[in-house]
């Protein structure tokens, strides 16, 4: 896969930490940053996709929503003798 270049400005403390990790692992700072950004992008892509799916369900009227008042009423009973099961 073709690779591109990106420029990132980091504070001195982060650069020092990155240099120490690079030295300890025998990897370059660039390789470490590339790995970290790839992991971040993968994680964020999953989260964004999950949010988009939930929004699509909502717009199709398929989301399992619970009225705020019902949730608040159930929470008000927590720990009491007449506790309401929020799953109901």
3D architecture notes:
By secondary structure, this protein is mostly helical. It has a domain of 57 residues. The protein is 62% helix and 0% strand. It contains 3 helices and no strands. It is elongated.
Spell out the key features of this protein.
mainly alpha, 3 helices, 0% strand, 88 residues, single chain
Number of strands: 0
Helix content: 55-70%
Inertia-based shape: elongated
Low-confidence stretches: none
The first-to-last residue Cα distance is 51 Å
User: Main beta sheet, described?
Assistant: none
* Beta-strand content bin: under 5%
Radius of gyration: 23 Å
Overall SS class: mainly alpha
Q: If you average the pLDDT, what whole number results?
A: 92
Element order: H for helix, E for strand: HHH
Number of helices: 3
Task: Give the helix/strand layout.
Blueprint: H1 12-25, H2 29-59, H3 68-77
In short:
The chain is 62% helix and 0% strand. With 88 residues, it is mostly helical. It is elongated.
